[in-house]
Amino acid sequence: xxxxxxxxxxxxxxxxxxxxxxxxxxxxxxxxxxxxxxxxxxxxxxxxxxxxxxxxxxxxxxxxxxxxxxxxxxxxxxxxxxxxxxxxxxxxxxxxxxxxxxxxxxxxxxxxxxxxxxxxxxxxxxxxxxxxxxxxxxxxxxxxxxxxxxxxxxxxxxxxxxxxxxxxxxxxxxxxxxxxxxxxxxxxxxxxxxxxxxxxxxxxxxxxxxxxxxxxxxxxxxxxxxxxxxxxxxxxxxxxxxxxxxxxxxxxxxxxxxxxxxxxxxxxxxxxxxxxxxxxxxxxxxxxxxxxxxxxxxxxxx
Amino acid sequence: xxxxxxxxxxxxxxxxxxxxxxxxxxxxxxxxxxxxxxxxxxxxxxxxxxxxxxxxxxxxxxxxxxxxxxxxxxxxxxxxxxxxxxxxxxxxxxxxxxxxxxxxxxxxxxxxxxxxxxxxxxxxxxxxxxxxxxxxxxxxxxxxxxxxxxxxxxxxxxxxxxxxxxxxxxxxxxxxxxxxxxxxxxxxxxxxxxxxxxxxxxxxxxxxxxxxxxxxxxxxxxxxxxxxxxxxxxxxxxxxxxxxxxxxxxxxxxxxxxxxxxxxxxxxxxxxxxxxxxxxxxxxxxxxxxxxxxxxxxxxxx
Lengths: 302, 302
Hints:
The first copy, chain A, is α/β, with parallel strands linked by helices. Chain A has 2 domains: 4-138 and 287-301, Nucleotidyltransferase, domain 5; 170-285, 2-Layer Sandwich (Nucleotidyltransferase, domain 5), CATH 3.30.420.310. The first copy, chain A, contains 9 helices and 14 strands. In chain A, the strands form 3 sheets. Chain A has a 6-stranded mixed β-sheet with strand order 3-2-1-4-7-6, with helices on one face. In chain A, α6 (210-222) packs antiparallel against α7 and α7 packs across α8 (265-277). The longest helix of chain A has 20 residues, at 231-250. The termini of chain A are close together. Chains A and B meet through β9, β12, α4, α6 and α7 of A and β9, β12, α4, α6 and α7 of B.
Protein backbone atom coordinates (compact mmCIF):
# COMPACT_ATOMS: atom_id res chain seq x y z
CA UNK A 1 0.00 0.00 0.00
CA UNK A 2 1.15 3.52 -0.79
CA UNK A 3 3.16 5.35 1.87
CA UNK A 4 0.91 8.40 1.51
CA UNK A 5 -2.88 8.55 1.52
CA UNK A 6 -5.71 11.04 1.13
CA UNK A 7 -7.47 11.68 4.46
CA UNK A 8 -10.92 13.30 4.29
CA UNK A 9 -13.14 14.56 7.12
CA UNK A 10 -16.25 15.09 4.98
CA UNK A 11 -19.05 16.58 7.02
CA UNK A 12 -22.41 18.28 6.61
CA UNK A 13 -21.09 21.76 5.87
CA UNK A 14 -17.44 21.34 4.95
CA UNK A 15 -14.83 18.95 3.58
CA UNK A 16 -11.35 19.01 5.10
CA UNK A 17 -8.65 17.16 3.17
CA UNK A 18 -5.05 16.19 3.87
CA UNK A 19 -2.39 14.24 2.06
CA UNK A 20 -0.53 12.50 4.88
CA UNK A 21 1.83 9.61 5.45
CA UNK A 22 1.00 6.47 7.40
CA UNK A 23 1.90 8.19 10.67
CA UNK A 24 -0.39 11.12 9.93
CA UNK A 25 2.39 13.54 9.02
CA UNK A 26 0.82 16.13 6.69
CA UNK A 27 2.18 17.04 3.25
CA UNK A 28 -0.81 19.04 2.03
CA UNK A 29 -3.99 20.40 3.59
CA UNK A 30 -7.03 22.01 2.04
CA UNK A 31 -10.70 22.77 2.77
CA UNK A 32 -13.45 22.44 0.16
CA UNK A 33 -16.95 24.00 0.35
CA UNK A 34 -18.46 20.63 -0.51
CA UNK A 35 -20.44 19.82 2.62
CA UNK A 36 -22.77 16.87 2.19
CA UNK A 37 -25.82 19.07 2.82
CA UNK A 38 -25.17 20.83 -0.50
CA UNK A 39 -24.58 17.78 -2.67
CA UNK A 40 -27.07 16.36 -5.16
CA UNK A 41 -27.54 12.57 -5.25
CA UNK A 42 -24.48 11.00 -6.93
CA UNK A 43 -22.50 14.22 -6.78
CA UNK A 44 -20.07 13.12 -4.04
CA UNK A 45 -18.30 10.49 -6.19
CA UNK A 46 -18.13 12.86 -9.12
CA UNK A 47 -16.72 15.76 -7.06
CA UNK A 48 -14.21 13.44 -5.44
CA UNK A 49 -12.85 12.35 -8.82
CA UNK A 50 -13.12 15.65 -10.67
CA UNK A 51 -12.28 18.20 -7.97
CA UNK A 52 -10.85 16.83 -4.75
CA UNK A 53 -8.32 14.32 -6.03
CA UNK A 54 -6.82 16.61 -8.69
CA UNK A 55 -6.61 19.57 -6.27
CA UNK A 56 -4.72 17.36 -3.82
CA UNK A 57 -2.56 15.74 -6.56
CA UNK A 58 -3.94 12.47 -5.20
CA UNK A 59 -5.17 10.69 -8.35
CA UNK A 60 -3.15 7.59 -7.46
CA UNK A 61 -3.51 7.72 -3.65
CA UNK A 62 -5.87 5.56 -1.62
CA UNK A 63 -8.34 7.55 0.49
CA UNK A 64 -9.99 7.15 3.90
CA UNK A 65 -13.16 9.21 4.46
CA UNK A 66 -15.10 9.81 7.68
CA UNK A 67 -18.18 11.88 8.47
CA UNK A 68 -21.62 12.38 6.97
CA UNK A 69 -20.23 11.27 3.62
CA UNK A 70 -21.16 7.78 4.87
CA UNK A 71 -24.86 8.73 5.28
CA UNK A 72 -27.79 8.59 2.88
CA UNK A 73 -27.01 12.22 2.02
CA UNK A 74 -23.39 11.43 1.15
CA UNK A 75 -21.55 9.09 -1.20
CA UNK A 76 -23.06 5.89 0.05
CA UNK A 77 -24.95 4.85 3.21
CA UNK A 78 -22.55 2.79 5.33
CA UNK A 79 -24.11 0.70 8.13
CA UNK A 80 -23.41 1.87 11.68
CA UNK A 81 -21.15 -0.04 14.04
CA UNK A 82 -22.90 -0.64 17.36
CA UNK A 83 -21.76 0.35 20.86
CA UNK A 84 -19.77 -0.81 22.67
CA UNK A 85 -17.44 -0.34 19.69
CA UNK A 86 -13.71 -1.04 19.60
CA UNK A 87 -11.25 0.46 17.17
CA UNK A 88 -10.89 -3.02 15.65
CA UNK A 89 -14.65 -3.14 15.02
CA UNK A 90 -14.48 0.21 13.23
CA UNK A 91 -11.51 -1.02 11.22
CA UNK A 92 -13.35 -4.20 10.29
CA UNK A 93 -16.44 -2.30 9.14
CA UNK A 94 -14.65 0.07 6.76
CA UNK A 95 -16.61 0.21 3.53
CA UNK A 96 -14.40 -0.19 0.45
CA UNK A 97 -15.28 1.41 -2.87
CA UNK A 98 -13.04 0.63 -5.80
CA UNK A 99 -12.06 3.70 -7.81
CA UNK A 100 -9.71 4.28 -10.77
CA UNK A 101 -6.14 4.75 -9.46
CA UNK A 102 -6.67 3.50 -5.90
CA UNK A 103 -9.51 2.45 -3.59
CA UNK A 104 -11.57 4.55 -1.19
CA UNK A 105 -12.62 3.45 2.31
CA UNK A 106 -15.52 5.05 4.16
CA UNK A 107 -15.51 4.86 7.96
CA UNK A 108 -18.84 3.64 9.43
CA UNK A 109 -20.68 5.80 11.94
CA UNK A 110 -21.54 4.42 15.38
CA UNK A 111 -24.98 3.80 16.88
CA UNK A 112 -25.93 3.30 20.52
CA UNK A 113 -29.06 2.89 22.64
CA UNK A 114 -29.33 5.94 24.87
CA UNK A 115 -29.05 5.25 28.57
CA UNK A 116 -32.05 7.58 29.21
CA UNK A 117 -34.32 5.21 27.26
CA UNK A 118 -34.92 7.74 24.47
CA UNK A 119 -34.12 5.36 21.63
CA UNK A 120 -30.97 5.27 19.53
CA UNK A 121 -28.28 7.90 19.21
CA UNK A 122 -25.90 8.18 16.27
CA UNK A 123 -22.61 9.74 15.21
CA UNK A 124 -20.69 9.91 11.94
CA UNK A 125 -17.18 11.32 12.01
CA UNK A 126 -16.74 11.94 15.74
CA UNK A 127 -15.84 8.27 16.29
CA UNK A 128 -12.71 8.87 14.20
CA UNK A 129 -11.79 11.93 16.27
CA UNK A 130 -12.36 10.00 19.49
CA UNK A 131 -10.30 6.95 18.54
CA UNK A 132 -7.63 9.19 17.03
CA UNK A 133 -7.40 11.08 20.31
CA UNK A 134 -7.06 7.80 22.22
CA UNK A 135 -4.32 6.65 19.81
CA UNK A 136 -2.33 9.85 20.27
CA UNK A 137 -2.62 9.89 24.02
CA UNK A 138 -0.94 6.51 24.33
CA UNK A 139 -0.21 6.73 28.03
CA UNK A 140 -3.82 7.52 28.81
CA UNK A 141 -5.58 4.95 26.67
CA UNK A 142 -6.80 2.55 29.32
CA UNK A 143 -9.30 3.34 32.04
CA UNK A 144 -12.46 5.41 31.69
CA UNK A 145 -12.54 8.73 29.85
CA UNK A 146 -15.37 11.21 29.39
CA UNK A 147 -15.01 12.96 26.06
CA UNK A 148 -16.82 16.05 24.84
CA UNK A 149 -16.77 16.86 21.12
CA UNK A 150 -18.51 20.25 20.76
CA UNK A 151 -20.15 21.39 17.53
CA UNK A 152 -23.49 21.70 15.76
CA UNK A 153 -24.46 18.36 17.28
CA UNK A 154 -22.08 17.99 20.24
CA UNK A 155 -21.18 14.43 21.25
CA UNK A 156 -20.42 13.23 24.76
CA UNK A 157 -18.80 9.82 24.94
CA UNK A 158 -17.57 7.32 27.52
CA UNK A 159 -14.44 5.50 26.47
CA UNK A 160 -13.62 2.47 28.66
CA UNK A 161 -10.31 0.68 28.08
CA UNK A 162 -10.30 2.07 24.56
CA UNK A 163 -13.82 0.94 23.70
CA UNK A 164 -16.55 3.45 22.87
CA UNK A 165 -19.04 2.27 25.50
CA UNK A 166 -21.82 4.79 25.06
CA UNK A 167 -22.48 8.35 23.92
CA UNK A 168 -25.14 11.00 23.73
CA UNK A 169 -25.74 14.01 21.47
CA UNK A 170 -26.66 17.57 22.45
CA UNK A 171 -27.75 19.83 19.60
CA UNK A 172 -26.43 22.93 21.35
CA UNK A 173 -24.60 24.39 18.35
CA UNK A 174 -27.69 24.10 16.19
CA UNK A 175 -29.92 25.72 18.83
CA UNK A 176 -27.41 28.58 19.10
CA UNK A 177 -27.46 29.11 15.34
CA UNK A 178 -31.27 28.94 15.13
CA UNK A 179 -31.74 31.37 17.98
CA UNK A 180 -29.23 33.95 16.78
CA UNK A 181 -30.43 33.83 13.17
CA UNK A 182 -34.17 33.25 13.24
CA UNK A 183 -35.65 33.91 16.69
CA UNK A 184 -36.92 36.82 18.75
CA UNK A 185 -33.39 36.81 20.26
CA UNK A 186 -31.95 37.48 16.80
CA UNK A 187 -28.49 38.99 17.09
CA UNK A 188 -27.96 42.07 14.96
CA UNK A 189 -24.72 43.37 16.39
CA UNK A 190 -22.50 41.23 18.57
CA UNK A 191 -19.43 42.00 20.65
CA UNK A 192 -17.62 39.10 22.30
CA UNK A 193 -18.08 39.79 25.97
CA UNK A 194 -16.58 37.65 28.74
CA UNK A 195 -18.85 39.02 31.43
CA UNK A 196 -21.98 38.33 29.40
CA UNK A 197 -20.75 34.78 28.74
CA UNK A 198 -20.31 34.30 32.48
CA UNK A 199 -23.73 35.79 33.19
CA UNK A 200 -25.09 33.19 30.74
CA UNK A 201 -23.23 30.43 32.63
CA UNK A 202 -24.83 31.60 35.87
CA UNK A 203 -28.25 31.64 34.22
CA UNK A 204 -27.81 28.04 33.01
CA UNK A 205 -28.54 26.79 36.54
CA UNK A 206 -28.79 23.01 36.67
CA UNK A 207 -29.47 22.80 32.94
CA UNK A 208 -33.23 22.45 33.41
CA UNK A 209 -36.10 24.67 32.19
CA UNK A 210 -34.05 25.68 29.14
CA UNK A 211 -37.00 27.11 27.18
CA UNK A 212 -37.59 29.46 30.09
CA UNK A 213 -33.97 30.37 30.76
CA UNK A 214 -33.43 31.15 27.06
CA UNK A 215 -36.13 33.82 27.20
CA UNK A 216 -33.99 35.76 29.68
CA UNK A 217 -31.73 36.67 26.73
CA UNK A 218 -34.67 38.72 25.52
CA UNK A 219 -36.25 39.86 28.77
CA UNK A 220 -32.93 41.19 30.08
CA UNK A 221 -32.69 43.43 27.00
CA UNK A 222 -36.36 44.47 26.89
CA UNK A 223 -36.39 44.92 30.66
CA UNK A 224 -33.34 47.19 30.50
CA UNK A 225 -30.92 44.78 32.19
CA UNK A 226 -28.46 44.06 29.33
CA UNK A 227 -27.28 45.84 26.15
CA UNK A 228 -28.45 43.99 23.03
CA UNK A 229 -24.88 43.59 21.73
CA UNK A 230 -24.22 41.20 24.65
CA UNK A 231 -27.00 38.75 23.71
CA UNK A 232 -24.74 36.51 21.62
CA UNK A 233 -22.15 35.94 24.36
CA UNK A 234 -24.90 35.54 26.96
CA UNK A 235 -26.70 32.95 24.81
CA UNK A 236 -23.45 31.08 24.23
CA UNK A 237 -22.77 30.88 27.97
CA UNK A 238 -26.35 29.89 28.72
CA UNK A 239 -26.55 27.11 26.12
CA UNK A 240 -23.09 25.65 26.74
CA UNK A 241 -23.61 25.95 30.48
CA UNK A 242 -26.93 24.10 30.30
CA UNK A 243 -25.33 21.40 28.17
CA UNK A 244 -22.38 20.71 30.46
CA UNK A 245 -24.61 20.87 33.55
CA UNK A 246 -27.04 18.22 32.35
CA UNK A 247 -25.51 16.00 29.67
CA UNK A 248 -22.80 14.07 31.61
CA UNK A 249 -25.51 12.71 33.93
CA UNK A 250 -27.09 10.99 30.91
CA UNK A 251 -23.88 8.92 30.76
CA UNK A 252 -23.85 8.36 34.52
CA UNK A 253 -21.04 10.87 35.10
CA UNK A 254 -21.07 13.79 37.54
CA UNK A 255 -18.68 16.57 38.59
CA UNK A 256 -15.83 16.61 39.56
CA UNK A 257 -15.00 14.22 36.72
CA UNK A 258 -12.28 15.00 34.20
CA UNK A 259 -13.41 15.75 30.65
CA UNK A 260 -11.33 15.66 27.46
CA UNK A 261 -12.65 18.31 25.06
CA UNK A 262 -11.74 17.59 21.44
CA UNK A 263 -12.47 20.04 18.64
CA UNK A 264 -12.04 23.59 17.41
CA UNK A 265 -9.76 25.26 19.94
CA UNK A 266 -11.75 28.50 20.34
CA UNK A 267 -14.98 26.59 20.95
CA UNK A 268 -13.18 24.13 23.24
CA UNK A 269 -11.98 27.07 25.35
CA UNK A 270 -15.61 28.13 25.91
CA UNK A 271 -16.53 24.60 26.90
CA UNK A 272 -13.61 24.40 29.29
CA UNK A 273 -14.78 27.58 30.97
CA UNK A 274 -18.32 26.19 31.29
CA UNK A 275 -17.09 22.84 32.60
CA UNK A 276 -14.90 24.52 35.17
CA UNK A 277 -17.83 26.68 36.22
CA UNK A 278 -19.90 23.54 36.78
CA UNK A 279 -17.16 21.82 38.82
CA UNK A 280 -15.52 19.57 36.21
CA UNK A 281 -11.85 19.35 35.33
CA UNK A 282 -11.21 19.77 31.61
CA UNK A 283 -8.37 19.40 29.13
CA UNK A 284 -8.50 20.66 25.55
CA UNK A 285 -7.23 18.73 22.51
CA UNK A 286 -7.07 19.88 18.90
CA UNK A 287 -9.75 18.15 16.83
CA UNK A 288 -7.80 18.36 13.60
CA UNK A 289 -4.85 16.44 15.07
CA UNK A 290 -7.28 13.89 16.51
CA UNK A 291 -9.16 13.10 13.30
CA UNK A 292 -5.95 12.91 11.31
CA UNK A 293 -4.50 10.45 13.82
CA UNK A 294 -7.68 8.37 13.58
CA UNK A 295 -7.72 8.33 9.78
CA UNK A 296 -4.01 7.42 9.67
CA UNK A 297 -4.51 4.57 12.15
CA UNK A 298 -7.38 3.23 10.03
CA UNK A 299 -5.23 3.54 6.90
CA UNK A 300 -2.42 1.55 8.52
CA UNK A 301 -4.90 -1.27 9.08
CA UNK A 302 -6.32 -1.64 5.58
CA UNK B 1 -69.08 56.72 27.96
CA UNK B 2 -70.45 54.77 25.03
CA UNK B 3 -72.24 51.52 25.78
CA UNK B 4 -70.15 49.73 23.13
CA UNK B 5 -66.40 49.81 22.65
CA UNK B 6 -63.73 48.45 20.32
CA UNK B 7 -61.66 45.71 22.00
CA UNK B 8 -58.30 44.86 20.37
CA UNK B 9 -55.85 42.07 21.23
CA UNK B 10 -53.01 43.37 19.05
CA UNK B 11 -50.07 40.98 19.13
CA UNK B 12 -46.85 40.26 17.29
CA UNK B 13 -48.39 38.27 14.44
CA UNK B 14 -52.10 39.05 14.47
CA UNK B 15 -54.71 41.59 15.48
CA UNK B 16 -58.02 40.30 16.85
CA UNK B 17 -60.84 42.84 17.08
CA UNK B 18 -64.31 42.87 18.63
CA UNK B 19 -67.06 45.39 19.03
CA UNK B 20 -68.54 44.52 22.42
CA UNK B 21 -70.71 46.04 25.08
CA UNK B 22 -69.56 46.92 28.60
CA UNK B 23 -70.19 43.34 29.75
CA UNK B 24 -68.10 41.91 26.92
CA UNK B 25 -71.05 40.73 24.85
CA UNK B 26 -69.85 40.63 21.24
CA UNK B 27 -71.60 42.38 18.33
CA UNK B 28 -68.83 41.97 15.74
CA UNK B 29 -65.56 40.06 15.56
CA UNK B 30 -62.76 40.17 13.01
CA UNK B 31 -59.07 39.28 12.61
CA UNK B 32 -56.60 41.50 10.75
CA UNK B 33 -53.16 40.43 9.45
CA UNK B 34 -51.61 43.47 11.08
CA UNK B 35 -49.29 41.94 13.69
CA UNK B 36 -46.86 44.53 15.07
CA UNK B 37 -43.89 42.54 13.74
CA UNK B 38 -44.94 43.61 10.24
CA UNK B 39 -45.65 47.27 10.95
CA UNK B 40 -43.38 50.16 9.97
CA UNK B 41 -42.76 52.92 12.57
CA UNK B 42 -45.89 55.06 12.82
CA UNK B 43 -48.00 52.60 10.84
CA UNK B 44 -50.08 51.34 13.78
CA UNK B 45 -51.95 54.61 14.34
CA UNK B 46 -52.52 55.03 10.61
CA UNK B 47 -53.83 51.46 10.15
CA UNK B 48 -56.07 51.83 13.19
CA UNK B 49 -57.72 54.94 11.75
CA UNK B 50 -57.79 53.95 8.08
CA UNK B 51 -58.44 50.18 8.24
CA UNK B 52 -59.47 48.80 11.61
CA UNK B 53 -62.02 51.38 12.76
CA UNK B 54 -63.89 51.58 9.42
CA UNK B 55 -63.96 47.78 9.02
CA UNK B 56 -65.49 47.48 12.49
CA UNK B 57 -67.86 50.48 11.94
CA UNK B 58 -66.22 51.87 15.09
CA UNK B 59 -65.24 55.42 14.04
CA UNK B 60 -67.02 56.87 17.05
CA UNK B 61 -66.27 54.10 19.58
CA UNK B 62 -63.62 54.27 22.30
CA UNK B 63 -61.05 51.49 22.09
CA UNK B 64 -59.03 49.41 24.57
CA UNK B 65 -55.89 47.73 23.19
CA UNK B 66 -53.66 45.10 24.80
CA UNK B 67 -50.59 43.22 23.57
CA UNK B 68 -47.36 44.09 21.81
CA UNK B 69 -49.06 47.20 20.41
CA UNK B 70 -47.82 48.78 23.66
CA UNK B 71 -44.15 48.00 22.91
CA UNK B 72 -41.49 49.93 21.01
CA UNK B 73 -42.52 47.96 17.92
CA UNK B 74 -46.18 48.95 18.25
CA UNK B 75 -48.13 52.19 18.46
CA UNK B 76 -46.36 53.62 21.46
CA UNK B 77 -44.12 52.19 24.20
CA UNK B 78 -46.19 52.03 27.40
CA UNK B 79 -44.27 51.57 30.66
CA UNK B 80 -44.64 48.20 32.39
CA UNK B 81 -46.58 47.77 35.61
CA UNK B 82 -44.46 45.91 38.17
CA UNK B 83 -45.27 42.69 40.01
CA UNK B 84 -47.02 42.12 42.30
CA UNK B 85 -49.67 43.80 40.12
CA UNK B 86 -53.34 44.19 40.94
CA UNK B 87 -56.11 44.77 38.44
CA UNK B 88 -56.48 48.26 39.90
CA UNK B 89 -52.80 48.95 39.16
CA UNK B 90 -53.29 47.88 35.55
CA UNK B 91 -56.41 50.03 35.33
CA UNK B 92 -54.55 53.01 36.76
CA UNK B 93 -51.67 52.63 34.31
CA UNK B 94 -53.79 52.58 31.13
CA UNK B 95 -52.18 54.87 28.58
CA UNK B 96 -54.69 57.23 26.94
CA UNK B 97 -54.22 58.50 23.41
CA UNK B 98 -56.74 61.04 22.14
CA UNK B 99 -58.05 60.27 18.67
CA UNK B 100 -60.73 61.85 16.43
CA UNK B 101 -64.14 60.40 17.38
CA UNK B 102 -63.20 58.76 20.69
CA UNK B 103 -60.09 58.03 22.76
CA UNK B 104 -57.88 54.94 22.71
CA UNK B 105 -56.42 53.26 25.82
CA UNK B 106 -53.41 50.96 25.68
CA UNK B 107 -53.01 48.41 28.48
CA UNK B 108 -49.50 48.36 30.03
CA UNK B 109 -47.49 45.13 30.06
CA UNK B 110 -46.22 43.71 33.34
CA UNK B 111 -42.63 43.23 34.48
CA UNK B 112 -41.29 41.03 37.27
CA UNK B 113 -37.95 39.94 38.72
CA UNK B 114 -37.58 36.23 38.07
CA UNK B 115 -37.44 34.05 41.16
CA UNK B 116 -34.49 32.11 39.64
CA UNK B 117 -32.34 35.24 39.75
CA UNK B 118 -32.13 35.49 35.95
CA UNK B 119 -33.12 39.14 35.76
CA UNK B 120 -36.45 40.55 34.66
CA UNK B 121 -39.28 38.83 32.84
CA UNK B 122 -41.96 40.63 30.84
CA UNK B 123 -45.40 40.13 29.32
CA UNK B 124 -47.67 42.25 27.13
CA UNK B 125 -51.20 41.04 26.54
CA UNK B 126 -51.28 37.95 28.73
CA UNK B 127 -51.97 40.12 31.82
CA UNK B 128 -55.32 41.04 30.26
CA UNK B 129 -56.13 37.36 29.60
CA UNK B 130 -55.18 36.47 33.16
CA UNK B 131 -57.20 39.19 34.89
CA UNK B 132 -60.08 38.56 32.51
CA UNK B 133 -60.05 34.90 33.47
CA UNK B 134 -60.06 35.83 37.17
CA UNK B 135 -62.99 38.22 36.60
CA UNK B 136 -65.06 35.55 34.82
CA UNK B 137 -64.38 32.88 37.37
CA UNK B 138 -65.89 34.94 40.15
CA UNK B 139 -66.18 32.14 42.67
CA UNK B 140 -62.55 31.21 42.28
CA UNK B 141 -60.95 34.62 42.45
CA UNK B 142 -59.36 34.45 45.87
CA UNK B 143 -56.63 32.06 46.94
CA UNK B 144 -53.61 31.02 44.90
CA UNK B 145 -53.86 29.98 41.25
CA UNK B 146 -51.21 28.71 38.87
CA UNK B 147 -52.00 29.83 35.35
CA UNK B 148 -50.45 28.62 32.12
CA UNK B 149 -50.90 30.69 28.97
CA UNK B 150 -49.35 28.64 26.12
CA UNK B 151 -48.09 30.23 22.91
CA UNK B 152 -44.97 31.41 21.12
CA UNK B 153 -43.71 32.71 24.45
CA UNK B 154 -45.76 30.77 27.01
CA UNK B 155 -46.40 32.49 30.34
CA UNK B 156 -46.76 30.79 33.71
CA UNK B 157 -48.21 33.00 36.42
CA UNK B 158 -49.04 32.86 40.12
CA UNK B 159 -52.19 34.74 41.01
CA UNK B 160 -52.67 35.28 44.76
CA UNK B 161 -55.93 36.82 45.96
CA UNK B 162 -56.36 38.35 42.52
CA UNK B 163 -52.90 39.90 42.38
CA UNK B 164 -50.39 38.84 39.75
CA UNK B 165 -47.57 37.90 42.16
CA UNK B 166 -44.97 36.57 39.78
CA UNK B 167 -44.58 34.93 36.39
CA UNK B 168 -42.05 33.32 34.10
CA UNK B 169 -41.83 32.83 30.33
CA UNK B 170 -40.95 29.68 28.39
CA UNK B 171 -40.26 30.17 24.69
CA UNK B 172 -41.52 26.70 23.83
CA UNK B 173 -43.71 27.72 20.89
CA UNK B 174 -40.85 29.60 19.29
CA UNK B 175 -38.43 26.68 19.74
CA UNK B 176 -41.02 24.38 18.15
CA UNK B 177 -41.39 26.69 15.13
CA UNK B 178 -37.60 27.12 14.74
CA UNK B 179 -36.94 23.39 14.94
CA UNK B 180 -39.68 22.35 12.54
CA UNK B 181 -38.85 25.04 9.99
CA UNK B 182 -35.10 25.56 10.06
CA UNK B 183 -33.31 22.70 11.83
CA UNK B 184 -31.96 19.25 11.07
CA UNK B 185 -35.30 18.03 12.49
CA UNK B 186 -37.11 19.95 9.73
CA UNK B 187 -40.59 18.56 9.22
CA UNK B 188 -41.45 17.88 5.60
CA UNK B 189 -44.59 15.82 5.99
CA UNK B 190 -46.50 15.66 9.26
CA UNK B 191 -49.36 13.54 10.46
CA UNK B 192 -50.86 14.32 13.85
CA UNK B 193 -50.07 11.25 15.87
CA UNK B 194 -51.19 10.72 19.47
CA UNK B 195 -48.72 7.92 20.14
CA UNK B 196 -45.79 9.99 18.90
CA UNK B 197 -46.93 12.90 21.09
CA UNK B 198 -46.96 10.55 24.09
CA UNK B 199 -43.55 9.15 23.17
CA UNK B 200 -42.35 12.77 23.19
CA UNK B 201 -43.89 13.28 26.65
CA UNK B 202 -42.01 10.22 27.90
CA UNK B 203 -38.78 11.52 26.39
CA UNK B 204 -39.19 14.88 28.15
CA UNK B 205 -38.05 13.28 31.41
CA UNK B 206 -37.64 15.84 34.19
CA UNK B 207 -37.33 18.67 31.66
CA UNK B 208 -33.52 18.73 31.87
CA UNK B 209 -30.88 18.17 29.16
CA UNK B 210 -33.26 19.55 26.52
CA UNK B 211 -30.60 20.06 23.85
CA UNK B 212 -29.82 16.37 24.13
CA UNK B 213 -33.39 15.11 24.31
CA UNK B 214 -34.34 17.17 21.25
CA UNK B 215 -31.76 15.31 19.17
CA UNK B 216 -33.71 12.10 19.72
CA UNK B 217 -36.29 13.48 17.25
CA UNK B 218 -33.58 13.01 14.65
CA UNK B 219 -31.73 9.95 15.94
CA UNK B 220 -34.95 7.96 16.24
CA UNK B 221 -35.60 8.57 12.53
CA UNK B 222 -32.01 8.07 11.35
CA UNK B 223 -31.62 5.07 13.65
CA UNK B 224 -34.77 3.48 12.21
CA UNK B 225 -36.90 3.85 15.34
CA UNK B 226 -39.60 6.28 14.12
CA UNK B 227 -41.17 7.25 10.77
CA UNK B 228 -40.24 10.80 9.78
CA UNK B 229 -43.90 11.88 9.54
CA UNK B 230 -44.16 11.45 13.33
CA UNK B 231 -41.39 13.95 14.15
CA UNK B 232 -43.74 16.91 14.51
CA UNK B 233 -46.04 15.24 17.08
CA UNK B 234 -43.01 13.81 18.90
CA UNK B 235 -41.33 17.22 19.07
CA UNK B 236 -44.54 18.81 20.32
CA UNK B 237 -44.82 16.25 23.13
CA UNK B 238 -41.15 16.57 24.00
CA UNK B 239 -41.10 20.37 24.15
CA UNK B 240 -44.42 20.82 25.97
CA UNK B 241 -43.52 17.95 28.31
CA UNK B 242 -40.17 19.53 29.15
CA UNK B 243 -41.86 22.87 29.77
CA UNK B 244 -44.53 21.60 32.15
CA UNK B 245 -42.02 19.38 33.96
CA UNK B 246 -39.60 22.20 34.77
CA UNK B 247 -41.30 25.59 34.63
CA UNK B 248 -43.71 25.44 37.62
CA UNK B 249 -40.73 24.86 39.93
CA UNK B 250 -39.39 28.28 38.90
CA UNK B 251 -42.51 29.70 40.59
CA UNK B 252 -42.14 27.43 43.61
CA UNK B 253 -44.98 25.13 42.51
CA UNK B 254 -44.81 21.34 42.11
CA UNK B 255 -47.19 18.54 41.10
CA UNK B 256 -49.91 17.69 42.04
CA UNK B 257 -50.93 21.36 41.86
CA UNK B 258 -53.95 22.47 39.84
CA UNK B 259 -53.22 24.54 36.72
CA UNK B 260 -55.61 26.77 34.77
CA UNK B 261 -54.65 26.69 31.09
CA UNK B 262 -55.89 29.73 29.17
CA UNK B 263 -55.56 30.02 25.40
CA UNK B 264 -56.28 28.40 22.06
CA UNK B 265 -58.35 25.33 22.88
CA UNK B 266 -56.47 22.85 20.65
CA UNK B 267 -53.12 23.91 22.10
CA UNK B 268 -54.57 23.93 25.62
CA UNK B 269 -55.66 20.31 25.13
CA UNK B 270 -52.04 19.34 24.40
CA UNK B 271 -50.86 21.15 27.50
CA UNK B 272 -53.52 19.45 29.60
CA UNK B 273 -52.31 16.08 28.39
CA UNK B 274 -48.71 16.98 29.22
CA UNK B 275 -49.65 18.36 32.64
CA UNK B 276 -51.65 15.24 33.47
CA UNK B 277 -48.69 13.11 32.36
CA UNK B 278 -46.45 14.99 34.78
CA UNK B 279 -48.90 14.63 37.68
CA UNK B 280 -50.70 17.99 37.65
CA UNK B 281 -54.43 18.60 37.56
CA UNK B 282 -55.47 20.91 34.75
CA UNK B 283 -58.53 22.83 33.57
CA UNK B 284 -58.83 24.49 30.18
CA UNK B 285 -60.32 27.95 29.58
CA UNK B 286 -60.90 29.71 26.27
CA UNK B 287 -58.37 32.51 25.77
CA UNK B 288 -60.68 34.58 23.59
CA UNK B 289 -63.35 34.75 26.26
CA UNK B 290 -60.69 35.63 28.84
CA UNK B 291 -59.11 38.54 26.98
CA UNK B 292 -62.50 39.94 26.05
CA UNK B 293 -63.57 39.81 29.70
CA UNK B 294 -60.35 41.58 30.68
CA UNK B 295 -60.72 44.33 28.08
CA UNK B 296 -64.39 44.85 29.02
CA UNK B 297 -63.49 45.13 32.71
CA UNK B 298 -60.82 47.71 31.89
CA UNK B 299 -63.30 49.62 29.72
CA UNK B 300 -65.82 49.74 32.55
CA UNK B 301 -63.18 51.43 34.70
CA UNK B 302 -62.12 54.26 32.37
